[in-house]
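Aspartyl/glutamyl-tRNA(Asn/Gln) amidotransferase subunit B: structure, please.
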Amino acid sequence: MRLEPVIGLEIHVQLKTESKMFCSCPNCGDLEAPNVNICPTCTGQPGTLPNINARAVEMGMLISYALGGEVAGISKFDRKNYFYPDLPKGYQISQFDLPVSQHGKLSIRLNEGRDGEREFTVGITRLHLEEDAAKLLHVDGGDGKSSLVDFNRAGTPLAEIVTEPDLRSPEEAKAFLQELRLIMRYLDVSDADMEKGQLRCDANISLREVPEDPKNENWSTQLNPKTEIKNLNSFRSVERALEFEIKRQTKLWLDGQIPSILATRGWDDARGVTVEQRTKEESSDYRYFPEPDLPPMDLTDTRDRLSRTVPELPEARRRRFVEQYGLTLADARTFCDQPDLADYAERVFSELDAWAASVQSAGGQALTPERAAKLVSGWVLTKLNGVLSAHKLSLETMKAGPENMAELLTMIHNSQVTGTNALLILEEMVLSGADPSQVMEEKVLGQMENLDELREAAKQAIADNPKPVEDWCGGKTTAVQFLVGQVMKATRGKAPPEEARRILEEELSKL
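Here you go.
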């Protein structure tokens, strides 16, 4: 018997508006001091009336467009009725039959290592807006059953995104969430940090049997009762919980105990298991009805305006980086997965074109797009990130601007400085913002141009290191690399490595 996982996700995105969803309290529910950003409205006091946060609605619409959704002309809020200590009113203001949008989709490219990339598409059932609940802190009181309530988070704007059951593996679920997080950051509607609760996910999973000849049977639309998994606070926990649940449900199928009712289970990250919580509610259990204190929203004019403001999204930017700059797909993905880094790289490419044209007009080497791509990916992705990590800096706190970086790359391209000394110059640029040519002159880091001096350094390296010389003469050609290192050391990194190697091999062949 072959079983196939059927997975759908319910994702809550905390929107970074200035104020809460239905009141004017500041939207900063992660404060350490409890119950300071509260008012009668977000604590559910009798007689208070909610006011819709227009910016939250616009953010929800912007997300909808980014996910290819059909944004409603008319949308409304509803009361979702249930009792829980973190819900002060005894109901949550959410949306039921007229959400902000429906029928979207998101295509993801999943890296499968040596097998390359595989694209899959996930349907987006709907996106609706709602208010967040308060935060519960369970403590050991006198009876060991005390809970404290912090209402700072109550009323925080949430966009809930519900997918179709189109995911077929934990890896796909993780990749979908990572791409969704990136889209939220590109739109600047949420930082979407799972560890801070800004992106929360519940996963729904069931299994179904795949017939021996799938083409001959209409089986692919069959859905069995699903199990909802809660308490997923990281991408890794989503992946691990789904892997465990697939194994657990597979065993039930093999034992003839196929799940027949909806259920909710919690993920225990420490033990690596899901734990039964309760049977899952249907929408009818919540007794939805229209929110009487809020009129329906006419989104027609806002819809027309916002549809023209969606920025370039991650996948489109990756493709453009490949086509426009000649980057590999892997490098384009690394750049575009960090919006700030991608912005910086774009400015470096722009400045590099100007620097290269200026230097070429003065007799310098022409810079091909392939060479530019290699320089930017090698030095911005690898070398710059290494320097930043070593000094615990970020793109925001470092001082090496795009123009100076482009000048340094031009110097490297035109053999004015070796890679070894270019790294020293880069470090100084990052720390002080100094001009690279100025650093090179002040610290005498320019590339050696006197080949007679270089040949003398090569001869000295050969004389001082008989063992690698003997190895080279014995057929171990890689031994020359040690001698190149000795020449670089003797010339304080100013010798061009390729030229040093050529001269060394020339001198060695005379032995």
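Notes: The mean pLDDT is 90.
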